[in-house]
Amino acid sequence: xxxxxxxxxxxxxxxxxxxxxxxxxxxxxxxxxxxxxxxxxxxxxxxxxxxxxxxxxxxxxxxxxxxxxxxxxxxxxxxxxxxxxxxxxxxxxxxxxxxxxxxxxxxxxxxxxxxxxxxxxxxxxxxxxxxxxxxxxxxxxxxxxxxxxxxxxxxxxxxxxxxxxxxxxxxxxxxxxxxxxxxxxxxxxxxxxxxxxxxxxxxxxxxxxxxxxxxxxxxxxxxxxxxxxxxxxxxxxxxxxxxxxxxxxxxxxxxxxxxxxxxxxxxxxxxxxxxxxxxxxxxxxxxxxxxxxxxxxxxxxxxxxxxxxxxxxxxxxxxxxxxxxxxxxxxxxxxxxxxxxxxxxxxxxxxxxxxxxxxxxxxxxxxxxxxxxxxxxxxxxxxxxxxxxxxxxxxxxxxxxxxxxxxxxxxxx
Length: 413
Fold this sequence. Notes:
This protein is an alpha+beta fold and 413 residues long.
């Protein structure tokens, strides 16, 4: 049985190699009827014109104001059956088309509505179809999604220390990962029902093209899937979320210091990748990452000194002056707090009662103060009120005398 399987596999492998060599020899002697058309912003182009229509976009200027520039082609009229080939230049597109046309195992039919092109490099793509189509080039000089990606990356990078220690972030990440990872369990269960030999031959012949095509097919029909099977989809997400939440609750948030550091560094690495891919001008995005890393690693003491001798030194904050009533109220409040602090210290074990009593002139009065009585006697309160009254009265008399002198000085002779 093993010899038979080995013999059949050898025959199949030899047939594949033979067909590949024959297709390569056939491609070298095949002429392609194609035309090259230049893409221009806002101009619609219709086809087909030839067997293969090649469209090329010229390289753009790498300027700083085009930091968030994006270029894409929209297929306004999509053909039913077409072959899309992407390459860096027209010769590569023609070569790919020759290989595809002469291949005994054609690629799976991709259907794309938008074709994203490099913003600063020349790029070409080819369309081979017999159906009519129409396409148009769009250039967005400020792609707000890229700006949002940059701002989000900066926010996540500087907030990573708090995110890694946040309980809500732990559960949200765990539940989201559990919902996505549960798809692997479904794939594993389905793979048990696929015959081993047939599955192995399918993977060997089609490889990742079949997998990518399946993902592309699901993504293109995601709207129909959510509309027709929204009950099953909602049930699956709910069950997977509950199981993931239970697992996160069972093991609890991470408390190990080294593990928290690893989570923080992972979040920051993802944030830096988001910043890097937020612009196709890689030099600018790399410079932003360097500035972010330098600023993040500056000691906090240096930042405090810069704040102290920088903006606050040149523009000091305005100091609000207190009125007389506010001054008296604040003085009484601070005096009350100080007396309460003194009373609490004397009642604490840190206070040596004997040493303190020996230094006091009136220990009995101090003991009454500790027990809650006022720190002033009635005689002291009366003298303070009398002095305040006479001081206020003398101030009023002085003001009246000054006003009378001013009237006399300004009276006519």
